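A.,

Following up on our hallway conversation. Structure tokens first:
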């Protein structure tokens, strides 16, 4: 049978320069903004309401997607209004991302009711840590109260613990639609409860609705290990099917996610991946070795090791730096990387994890006696993170280990592409993340239980053929990965991805092809 068509609390004051709408009296657009509502060329500009729980000062990968779309929408005939949460519980905060919010975009707020304070007290962790769905995900050493807290989260708060935002955001969204003459509503999840807002608006007003999925819903990796009952799973599946069926358009970040959804609801799915923003990267210097910054088109995505600034320090006996920039949760602890490093005892290599990490990683570092070789550093602002990526000898990305690992593509992978350093993917070698690295010709993929492969490759990248001994004058890195595919990498630039979403928004509305 065909599986469908799969195409590629109270509001607080805002930091300047972001225009924030008061909850009781939403601001009107400025005169400058109103002018942008006029036609661009021969096509009418579209007015879009973006409903997203994650918004600066939230940090991490989840906020990046629509922050960047909103940043570039106006270049492609779309005028956005944003609705987000006024009293959210964010696991990571990065105030530097506020700089990316256009100053003349209205950002409105709605309050929420969340259980993370109570859940955190029951689980013995801060509310911000409790807000991370992977907290105490598979911990087998939980007390009775912690087990109860996890069970309640898995079975009572459906589809997620942020569902308390829905009624407040819905009321606010209806006002924004009237006052800003909105053409299209976009909801993005996780949290997938956000899609209930779009569904209700569609039912009540008939407005065009685009449901965007940054991750799978019922198949997301942490749902597979939470203690969900059969009843809860059934309810969640019905919720998922309702959104997939009723939305006018559905966008996903990976082809594998589209395939998963197509097995449940037959309809058209549009794959618009995550990407990189050239503005997030530093100007080229001898210390950053970053590709030339685009000005502004054509986009120059030439990686650093193609600009003539080849790393020579490894062959001079200096330390070879391997970095993972981003969070490490319980399902993506790369023990094979630690074992690979142990095999390179005579090689001056160091491994750095930058960001929030799970306690199991710390325990494994101690267990393998790697405390002097492997270090852990706290979360850094995004632009500082991209600088570190550019300065690495090798960047590592780990795909969450679960039944759906093959379809998962960590967001940091796209920044790694533009940073231009070799990339190691730890995950399924036939997965979507591995395929991107191969098509961009910028790295290699290794399975979770493979330590020999990473050890050998790191050894060759470090400037020697034999990982058993350090040879500063040895062979260079694998030549097969010394020239990346700049044209393929350019497909993941945020302006190009925004153009694709804007085209979808601007096309005439038609009835979707969902199975009813």
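Then the amino acids I'd put at each of the 516 positions:
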């Amino acid at each position: 049978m065909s599986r469908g068509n799969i195409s590629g609390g109270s509001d607080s004051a805002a930091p300047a320069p972001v225009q924030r709408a008061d909850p009781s009296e939403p601001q009107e657009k400025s005169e400058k903004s109103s002018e942008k509502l006029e036609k661009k060329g021969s096509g009418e500009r579209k007015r879009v309401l973006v409903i997203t729980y994650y918004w600066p000062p939230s940090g991490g990968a989840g906020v990046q997607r629509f922050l960047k779309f909103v940043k570039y929408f106006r270049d492609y005939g779309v005028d956005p209004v944003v609705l987000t949460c006024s009293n959210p519980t964010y696991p990571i905060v990065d105030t530097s991302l506020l700089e990316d919010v256009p100053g003349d975009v209205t950002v409105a707020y709605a309050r929420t009711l969340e259980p993370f304070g109570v859940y955190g007290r029951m689980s013995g962790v801060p509310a911000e840590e409790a807000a991370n769905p992977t907290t105490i995900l598979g911990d087998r050493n939980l007390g009775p109260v912690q087990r109860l807290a996890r069970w309640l989260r898995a079975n009572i708060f459906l589809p997620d613990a942020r569902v308390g935002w829905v009624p407040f955001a819905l009321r606010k969204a209806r006002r924004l639609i009237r006052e800003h003459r909105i053409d299209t509503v976009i909801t993005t999840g996780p949290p997938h409860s956000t899609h209930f807002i779009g569904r209700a608006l569609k039912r009540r007003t008939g407005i065009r609705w685009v449901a965007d999925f940054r991750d799978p819903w019922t198949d997301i990796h942490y749902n597979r290990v939470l203690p969900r009952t059969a009843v809860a799973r059934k309810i969640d599946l019905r919720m998922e099917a309702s959104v997939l069926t009723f939305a006018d358009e559905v966008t996903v970040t990976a082809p594998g996610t589209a395939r998963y959804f197509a097995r449940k609801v037959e309809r058209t799915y549009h794959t618009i991946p995550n990407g990189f923003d050239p503005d997030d990267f530093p100007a080229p210097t001898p210390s950053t070795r970053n590709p030339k910054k685009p000005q502004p088109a054509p986009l120059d995505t030439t990686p650093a090791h193609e600009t003539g600034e080849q790393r020579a320090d490894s062959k001079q006996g200096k330390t070879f730096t391997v970095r993972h920039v981003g969070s490490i949760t319980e399902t993506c602890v790369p023990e094979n990387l630690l074992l690979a490093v142990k095999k390179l005892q005579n090689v001056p290599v160091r491994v750095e994890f930058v960001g929030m990490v799970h306690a199991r990683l710390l325990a494994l570092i101690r267990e393998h006696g790697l405390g002097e070789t492997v270090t852990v550093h706290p979360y850094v602002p995004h632009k500082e993170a991209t600088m570190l990526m550019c300065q690495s000898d090798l960047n590592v990305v780990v795909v969450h280990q679960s039944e759906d690992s093959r379809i998962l593509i960590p967001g940091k992978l796209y920044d790694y592409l533009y940073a231009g350093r070799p990339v190691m993917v730890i995950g399924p070698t036939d997965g979507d993340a591995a395929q991107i690295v191969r098509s961009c010709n910028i790295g290699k993929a290794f399975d979770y239980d493979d330590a020999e492969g990473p050890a050998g490759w790191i050894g060759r990248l470090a400037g020697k053929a034999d990982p058993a001994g350090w040879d500063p004058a040895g062979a260079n890195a694998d030549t097969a990965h010394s020239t990346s595919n700049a044209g393929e990498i350019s497909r993941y630039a945020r302006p190009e991805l925004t153009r694709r979403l804007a085209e979808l928004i601007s096309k005439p509305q038609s009835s979707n092809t969902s199975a009813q």
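DSSP finds 17 helices and 15 strands in the chain. Curious whether your intuition agrees with the design.

B.
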